[in-house]
Amino acid sequence: MTTTRHYPTKSFAPPGTLALGTLLAVVLANLLVVEAFFVSAGPGKNSLLTVAKFVGVHVALVMMVQLVLVARLPWLDRRIGMDRLTVWHRWTGFTLFWAVLVHATLVVVGYATLDDAPVPKTFLALAGVPASLFGMIAASIIVGTAAVSVRYARRRLSYETWHALHLLLYAAVAFGLVHQFLETTTFTSSGWATAYWSLLWIAVGVAFVGGRVVLPLWRNAYHRFRVAAVVPESDDVVSVHVTGRHLDRLPARPGQFFIWRFLGHGRWWQANPFSLSAAPDGRSLRLTAKAVGSASAALRHVPVGTRVFAEGPYGAFTTLHQVKDAMLLVAGGVGVTPVRALLEEATGPVVVLYRVRTEAEAALLTELEGLVRARGAQLHVLTGRTGAGSPPNNPFDPDQLVALVPDIRERDVYVCGPPAMTSAVLRSLRALRVPRRQVHAERFSLA
Ligand SMILES: Cc1cc2nc3c(=O)[nH]c(=O)nc-3n(C[C@H](O)[C@H](O)[C@H](O)COP(=O)(O)OP(=O)(O)OC[C@H]3O[C@@H](n4cnc5c(N)ncnc54)[C@H](O)[C@@H]3O)c2cc1C
Which residues form the FAD-binding FR-type domain (predicted)? Predict the structure, then answer.
């Protein structure tokens, strides 16, 4: 018979909930102010144009939320995680697309009704007015970006091509901003309204440029990262050790990742996210990558001494979110990298499940075994093909999971592996009623 042990619960408010609450409160507060300015500015020239104006000011607000979600602000990123923030960015992106379409259609039809003119003629007339033309250019870029972001198109484009097209959105923001300041009556209706709107855009701009440009540039100038060693772990897995100055001041935690760019190696334009595969020790960082495409395969040939531009640390797959003292770490394939780093930081009782097809494919296994021994933890290497044999080999089915870890509900569970495996584990954790705030997943994909 198995007995269930109980471990104390850490007693702080979940950081993710706090950050989400703060974000929502800021968005709602601004929404209320914007609507108050909209009402006080009075209606448009007809009812269609009033609705167009209403949608228009909300388009601008959604644009700001879009920028904040991808500003990579450390406080938000550590609490919510870049994966969730980019998923929200994707959904607000499609909201923006529909809102822009509705706004543009209502403006054209509204003016056509007002002038009693055909819609195409009104469209051409509006295109001759600079303020409207800027809006049209912004809208066209937003519509085009949404088109290349739907799953069908996204899967057919390389990450770099899609990303380069996506960057055009910054031009859309610039054109949209000029359009707003030339066209809107809501924010020119009073000095207060203009000041508020300008300050809001300045705050968003500072957050975005600070998080995306200033902080990474400053960190790289300060730390001067360089490749210290390249160590093959197997035929298709390689570890890259990176050193630099004052690494003890880099606020990186086990479980986090950086977006790495290896300069002067003929691939400076490629930047790829890789997790830290060892806890940062203040002297060096290590990433371990499986070769799946050109950038990850080329890491094996990066010369020692190569300058590295690293953006980060990012991610919420850390013990900041740990609720219980006990942990279950679940790794699948190369998803072992952040799990290996987290194991170094673990202080309470730990069980590690490592899912691989064969032990020979298990990257970093010897290190994992050493750490498990040193910490008195348990390690189960789960091999074999899923569904094979009788009974079928489904180690992450609820029954088999609970047989391996009987006190699973008393643990924080950290899962990182291929998408199908991660989803299977998350489904089983729900079936086993492991509280949601004890479940943490890193999917190795950003929307
Ligand atoms: C948070 C996070 C942590 C990761 N940690 C590791 C790790 O520790 N070890 C490991 O082996 N792999 C890790 N990955 C996966 C790794 O980033 C991809 O395998 C790698 O970027 C593939 O690039 P490629 O050019 O070799 O292959 P490609 O064939 O060009 O890319 C394969 C897929 O990888 C994704 N990808 C490529 N470039 C980027 C990018 N710049 N940003 C986001 N996604 C991109 C895209 O979905 C792309 O379709 C991680 C991914 C994420 C999102």
Answer: 220-320
What the block records as the tokens of 311 is 């953006």
Does residue 10 have a pLDDT over 60? no
User: Which residue's C-alpha comes closest to atom 10 of ligand 1?
Assistant: 289
Residues with CB under 6 A from ligand 1: 158-159, 257, 271-275, 287-290, 292-296, 334, 337, 444-446
Residue 383: pLDDT band (50, 70, 90) is very high
For the beta sheet containing 257-262, the strands, ordered from the edge strand earlier in sequence to the opposite edge, are 272-275, 257-262, 308-314
CA nearest ligand 1 atom 9, residue: 289
Instruction: Give residue 397's identity as a one-letter amino acid code.
Output: D
Task: With CA atoms as reference, report the closest residue to 315 among 90, 84, 77, 87.
Answer: 77
The predicted model gives 186-205 an average pLDDT of 90
> Which tokens go with 85?
């923030």
Give 18's Cβ-side CA count (13 Å radius).
11
Bond preceding residue 391 cis, omega within 30 of 0: yes
Q: What is the structure's pLDDT at 225?
A: 98
Residue 137 has pLDDT above 70, yes or no: yes
Under 8 Å CB-to-CB from 191, ≥6 apart: which residues?
none
Side-by-side strand order, sheet with 237-243:
226-232, 237-243, 284-290
How far apart are the CA of 269 and the centre of ligand 1, in A? Answer: 14
Report d(CA 98, CA 116) in Å as an integer. Answer: 26
So what's the pLDDT on residue 2? 41
Parallel/antiparallel/unpaired status of strands 237-243 and 284-290: antiparallel
Going by alpha carbons, the residue nearest to atom 15 of ligand 1 is 444
Omega prior to 273 cis, within 30 of 0: no
Q: Which helix (H) or strand (E) holds 243?
A: strand 237-243
